[in-house]
Amino acid sequence: MPDLDIAEVARRAAVPASTLRYYEEKGLISSTGWRGLRRQFDPGVLERLALIALGRSAGFSLDEIGRMFAPDGQPRIDRRMLADKADELDRTIRELGVLSDSLRHAAVCPAPSHLECPTFRRILRSAAAGAAPARAVPRRNTPDA
């Protein structure tokens, strides 16, 4: 398969050409040369861009993603790094779930004022301490204690 020019890679990978140039500058991808004024890329760059997109969506930095490739460009993914990121995502999901429950409670709380609601007061104390509200709100569909 012939090399692809930067516009074709950008179209297929659904990223702007400026992102491709930036990734090349960071050493994440490399062009095979130039045809006129346009960079050319091996078609394999599309798979590499998909791996970069997956890493970005998982929350890895570009530097972390860069370390996931061997000097020859082949993936060299540290499984411990993946497990650590999965643990981090699980913590974030739990924290967001608690926050969602807190917001739902505040939206339907029968107290005359949120400041009169014991559950909302616990949420405020947690927020003031810089923490996500840990079990400040009863589980969904359970009466408030």
What's the helix and strand layout?
Layout: E1 4-5, H1 6-13, H2 17-25, E2 33-35, E3 38-41, H3 45-57, H4 62-66, H5 79-108, H6 118-128
Antiparallel strand pairs: 1-3, 2-3
> In which order are the strands of the major sheet placed?
1-3-2
Poorly predicted regions are 141-145
Beta-strand percentage? 5-15%
Can you give the mean pLDDT?
A: 87
> What is the gyration radius calculated from CA atoms?
24 Å
Record field, number of beta strands: 3
Helix percent reads 40-55%
- Name the helix and strand elements from N-terminus to C-terminus, one letter apiece: EHHEEHHHH
Biggest sheet statistics: 3 strands, antiparallel
Distance between the termini: 66 Å
Please tell me what the overall shape is: elongated
How many helical stretches? 6
Category from helices, strands and their pairing: mainly alpha
Describe the fold and architecture.
- The protein has 145 residues and is mostly helical.
- It is built from 6 helices and 3 strands; from the N terminus they run βααββαααα.
- The chain has helices at 6-13, 17-25, 45-57, 62-66, 79-108, 118-128, and strands at residues 4-5, 33-35, 38-41.
- It has a 3-stranded antiparallel β-sheet.
- A hairpin with a 2-residue loop joins strand 2 (33-35) and strand 3.
- Residues 141-145 have low confidence and may be disordered.
